């Protein structure tokens, strides 16, 4: 029987790569995005259905969930929609910080909440979320982005105890730097007092430092969806694996000192 995955943020990057991979693997794909009318690639695939979804719109979340479930059984929900808000906290407006949390954190929470009754009723289902290495450790001039990803970590771990008793899984994908449009779509808030720190950090995360493609991360999403394991976190990308292992080995404070030294030497 054909399985179905529901994906948020499928217009680019990891979301689009995942939609294409699952479609090629014979899954039915419900790919959601804010403007499906602008999509020029996924709409040509026979087993992909496009639906509109802005994860900051609570009414549309409920409406699109109902539309998706009306199409047939759903096995996996991949909460992928998100973007990066960079810059010193002092430079960020209240509107910007609220939108970051509304998209990256509350959007995931609300989409998940909308699907839980369905999964609980059928005693099966899996939620996968695009987290980040920035949800496992903090980086400079990205406090709100990191906060949104750290929030997902605690939320997922806590929620796993609620969901597992009903046969529902929850997993988080933890990539490092990925060659996706999130870089070009990042919102960068500038402040003269932090200009040096911001420029050094942006240089440290420049495109030539990127080691993972969206397709590589999509492979990990597929692994998480099909391996049958009750694993909470999938750290992926060689940079993420190396940095996370280093932090665990040296401890939080020594690792923080290493980040500060790296930027000082830059």
UniProtKB/TrEMBL annotation:
One Pfam family per UniProt: adh_short
Keywords from the named record: Oxidoreductase
Stretches assigned to the Ketoreductase domain: 3-176
Taxonomy, superkingdom: Bacteria
Gene3D superfamilies: NAD(P)-binding Rossmann-like Domain (3.40.50.720)
Molecular function GO terms recorded: oxidoreductase activity
Family, per entry: Belongs to the short-chain dehydrogenases/reductases (SDR) family.
Protein name: Short-chain dehydrogenase
Organism of origin: Spirosoma radiotolerans
Classification lineage: Bacteria, Pseudomonadati, Bacteroidota, Cytophagia, Cytophagales
